[in-house]
Amino acid sequence: MKGVLKLGWFFAIGMMLPFASAMAEEGHAAAGSLASSWSAPIGVGIGIALAVIAAATAQGRIAAAFMDGVSRNPGAQKSMFVPLIISLAFVETLVLFTFLVVNGLAGKI
User: Fold this and answer.
1) What angle do CA 66, 68, 69 make, to 5 degrees?
2) Percent of the chain at pLDDT exceeding 90
3) Residues 6+ apart with CB under 8 A from 72
4) Does the predicted TM-score (pTM) go above 0.85?
5) Are 95 and 59 in contact (CB under 8 A)?
6) How many Cα atoms sit within 13 Å of 46 on the Cβ side?
7) What whole-number distance in Å separates Cα of residue 7 and Cα of residue 13?
8) CB < 8 Å & 24+ apart, contacts of 93-97
9) Measuring CA to CA, how many Å separate 53 from each of 9, 74, 92?
10) Does 88 have pLDDT greater than 80?
11) Phi/psi zone of residue 25: left (φ > 0), alpha (ψ -120 to 50 degrees), beta?
């Protein structure tokens, strides 16, 4: 598990480093403008892709835990169904918020 976490941190830092330096440049356009950055569209695409991958993984784990719980105790299905739907809605809401932020950034490119 520790190896996976180290690999995840390495991947996250490795992906953020080039975009941070591109966002820091103010040479050609006004400060704060994303139009001068060639890596902004790539960052937007990677951002939404990571959000969707993480949400799909989370929803899969939620559904697997629900199915495992129902298979162990079928009588508890009714009491477990509402928390299942609420947790799936929370995960999907995070993806929708990410989509709105990415669309906002894409409009500035």
Assistant:
1) 65
2) 37
3) none
4) no
5) no
6) 12
7) 10
8) 94/51, 94/55, 95/51, 95/52, 95/55
9) 16, 30, 12
10) yes
11) beta
- What is the C-alpha separation between 10 and 12, in angstroms, rounded? 6
Given a contact cutoff of 8 angstroms between Cβ atoms, the answer to whether 23 and 6 are in contact is: no
Type of residue at 61: R
pLDDT in tens, 11-52: 556 555 555 555 555 555 555 555 556 677 777 888 888 889
Q: What is the pLDDT of residue 7?
A: 56
CATH number for the region 2-108 comes to 1.20.20
Would you say 94 and 55 are in contact if contact means Cβ atoms under 8 Å apart?
Answer: yes
